[in-house]
Design brief:
single chain, 144 residues, mainly alpha, 5 helices, 0% strand
């Protein structure tokens, strides 16, 4: 929890510039590392696969024989064997949603709105009860 003892306040504009410079350098380093990772991963995924049986199968189905295609093929095989997570990953990658997903989302929104309404009503009732108590306390003071 923040309080005066554990806050590191910046005491001058020079100190703020120095901390900003250090943060900018660190951010740049991380950004370059992520870019290098994506570049390396893309190069590996687009490389041609060397396993003949997989390569032959992919080419026979009119697909390039890259590692990316082989991974997609493996995911499809898992989904065909009943792996629901593999199916969901494929579906989400394609960006398709089912009517059940939309229906479930609408039900969740409806439930959240109902809960919010109940909470508002509860807060209003508690507020009214507090006002009545306050008014009664003031009336008792006036009588004394």
């Amino acid at each position: 929890m923040a309080n005066e003892k554990n806050l590191n306040l910046i005491k001058s504009g020079e100190e703020a510039r120095e901390k900003g410079r250090k943060g900018g350098k660190a951010s740049g380093k991380v950004r370059r590392e992520k870019a290098n990772f994506r570049k390396t991963l893309n190069a590996l995924l687009t490389a041609q696969i060397e396993v003949d049986s997989i390569k032959d199968f992919l080419e026979a189905n009119g697909v390039d024989s890259s590692y990316e295609s082989a991974i997609n093929f493996a995911m499809i095989q898992k989904a065909l064997k009943g792996d629901v997570k593999a199916y969901i990953a494929i579906r989400d990658t394609l960006g398709t949603k089912t009517k059940l997903d939309e229906k479930e989302q609408k039900q969740r929104i409806k439930m959240m709105k109902a809960q919010e309404e109940k909470l508002k009503e509860k807060n209003e009732k508690e507020g009214e009860a507090m006002n009545i108590t306050f008014i009664k306390a003031n009336e008792e003071k006036d009588e004394i």
